[in-house]
Design brief:
By secondary structure, the chain is an alpha+beta fold. The protein has a single domain, classed as 2-Layer Sandwich (TTHA1013/TTHA0281-like). The protein has 1 helix and 4 strands. It starts with a strand and ends with a strand. The relative contact order is 0.30.
Length: about 70
Amino acid sequence: MPVKNIINVHIFRGDDYYIAESNDLPVVTQAKSLDELIANINEAIEITLEGEKLYDFNLSANPQIVANIIS
């Protein structure tokens, strides 16, 4: 299986919050604004990968985060 260079995140708009969920990592977060949500996504991914070996998640050394808004 090839190593991934991208961490995919899907963003959904709920009634009161934006919700982000990654397909590649066990990460889910929410926020009132998109700016806050992006900060939360970055923090949640950083915490999830802290102290982990990226290859255990099939990720390259410097993966990029790609967020898609699902309507």
